[in-house]
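S1.2 Input.
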Amino acid sequence: MAFAEGSLRTRDIMNPLVNQPGLQSMNRILFLRKLALLDDQASIGRNGWNGWREFFVARTADEKGNIISFYLKATDGEPLATYAPGQYVTVKLPNETIRCWSISEWTGLDTPPYYRVSTKKSTASSKWMHSIGITSTRLSLGKPTGTFRLDWAPLFPPRQIHFSSSWRGYPWTRLLCIRPSERFLFSKPHWRSVLHGPKGDNASASSR
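S1.3 Output.
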């Protein structure tokens, strides 16, 4: 089975191929993987907006290591932009300070119900959030962005190695909990290694 370069770019072409009787199992897996990538391209960034949008702190959660997670929802009640694991939001505090914080939870490619950001009480902005950013606090957010994210592009995803340092590796702990079956269509486990060096401590490593 041969195809011209760049021909497998739409669902209209891919759907009949996936449902073709007698299609070899490996070809079916590759086509399903291509369909998943098309869905990613169409879904990530959907419902985005330009400029600032008003949000409020819906709830907070105390985490270990002097970290607090903030669950942010839009005040207008309109759908939120979808995003990829590893992307961040730009946050403008009421005092006009602007910071970028990674989204520390991935809710899938469906429209997210909130954005979750996790901050450690260290900088002036994070201290403000920890002391004043209580439930109902209003904030301005830019749409999710960032190219440093989990790579789903390869048809055969290789083993991924993630490096982190200090507490900033914390958001990745939630993102790495994504089960391989949720994104990858292969029966073998998709192994990921994490090399984390806590501040003032020896580096540690783990795999999943």
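S1.4 Remarks. The chain has five helices and nine strands.
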